[in-house]
Here is the input.
Amino acid sequence: MEDDFDQDVLLDVRRLSVTFAGGVRALRGVSFQVRAGEVVALVGESGSGKSTSGLAVMGLIERDRGAEVSGEIRLRGKDGDEKEITGLSERELRALRGNDVAMIFQEPMSSLNPIYAIGSQICEAIRIHRSVSRAEAARDAREALDLLGIPNPDRCMVSYPHQLSGGMRQRVMIAMALACRPRMLIADEPTTALDVTIQAQIIAHLKRLQRQTGMAILFITHNLGLVAEIADRAMVMYAGEIVESGPVADIFGAPRMPYTRALLQSLPRLGVTRASGTRIEAIPGNVPSSARWPSGCAFHPRCRYVVAGRCDASEPMLEACDTGRHRVRCLRWRELEKVAS
Amino acid sequence: MSAAESGTVEEPLLQVERLRTWFPIRRGVIPRPVGAVKAVDDVSFTVHRREVLGLAGESGSGKTTIGRSILRLIEPTDGRVVFGGADVTALGRHELRLFRRKAQIVFQDPFAALDPVMTIEEILGEPLQVQGLAKGRQERRDRVVRLLESVSLSTDFLSRRPHEMSGGQRQRIVIARALAVEPEFIVADEPVSALDVSIQAQIINLLQDLRDRFKLAMLFISHDIAVMEYLSDRIAVIYLGRLMEIGPATEICRAPKHPYTLALLSAVPDPDPSRRRTRIVLEGDVPNPADPPSGCVFRTRCPYALPACAGERPALRPVGPDRFVACIRDDVL
Here is the structure.
């Protein structure tokens, strides 16, 4: 694994496993790093464990409800200190959240309080983390809204969540998350509930702010198109594991894992029509359930390159291929390279 | 528009003429209408036999309302819907039932569309019974088995209930149920949007196969224009209850003639990092359909808007074979 722990690494997750009550193994030994200023995408289908990974980094897995978290999640804070998230108390976590690492979710309505004006909610978030006056907090809140291209920030400050459209609410959430200038943002499907034209606006603002502030983003999504658009590096998840990771150009240009390849081929794209004679290739079968993962390679029941007695028997490791930054979890990736070319 | 399309010899299966579906807004102690949400406002198009027409638009564009108004699941306010020569808007209860044997709907959410307490055999047998299409239990079962086969599900599913199935399997059942009455026309309202990427492709290919096998015409409603280009013969682009552009799917996607279509296409994230396109990012939100802008409804977000766009509502003008666009700017695209 990536063992070199250099100064650039903001987040270092090692062998992270999460088991929910009832024995549902949502994550099975996930390891990855996020460097300062880097945009990393965690991409996968429902149940792949991508959201659980984000929640674990935020310390939001509820252990008191019987969930078990093992492994290490080390985060370098603003003060330069390294914190082990899995060992922090709720109080220490609260100091960390928003300040060092912030998170935005798919549905902004459920994250906003319906009975308070937008301005006071952002100010509250700022004043929890920074000892500033009410006036200063209001000024920063207004500026944060302005930065996200909200047309009339003053009016937005006195609006209530229900008065805003879905796109505006999501901008407010991002403004709130960024108001304390975290070094890292975890964005869990932030634009999935929005229309494509609104999604394009929000992604454009996120990219610009990321460049300006140099914050790192862990971008969680099921949308491969968005990954190509926003990320430097991508990690593909399947059945609670990372099955392929690497620079976005490698993942899309030369995918090694049969799952990644199949996923890319199953995607309808503009310009691909029936008239042009191309048929999109569907992946057979169903997304496996976390209650019972398949044996061996979790993708083997749906893989067109499966070898009985091998793929269902031994678990593949995440191995380095190509440049070394590209990693793949497949027993047959070397053989399949010849098939592909 | 039917006049302009008269080049085609065959009578269209479905003609939608100046369809309006307005929802009244009522206010006051004794509620009285104070205005209306113009969900669908003066939309006309045709669907030919065995043709798939894609209806593209974002949330609030009225695309779902159009689909439901055609089937009279929502009563249209004005306009005509002519199906196989008969005016659907004038049908009585009995005739409406006969119409629904020919025209069916597939909903987006396969979780909400199926009764959780019924078995799959009951779910698929019900429309056969309602429409009197199978005599006796044995014949009904035979037909249900054939329906399952047509959506590539085994007979193991007969006794199962919806909660025991995955999202993709449920959507297959929803499709099989629509096919049970052997319709000529299906309104497919976002049939793949709730599904995982790897499952989406299965259902898209299934719809493609069924369309060929059962000679179906389809109104394919989606916000995903890439899926739509793949499945549709023609595409109609809807914005704020109005038709912006209509024409052959490949043409619309390759060379859009309406600024909104261009913006919609350029907003689709491209899963190819080596291809970087110039993107038109629309500012602002979709206006309130209860108080739409005057003239062209898209002008408030249009990068090419002129003062004249606020004047008259732009009429559909022909811009090529079978292509029409509602935009007065003939000089930009």
Observations:
- Residues 1-7 of chain B have pLDDT under 50 and may be disordered.
- Chain B has one domain: 3-117+161-325.
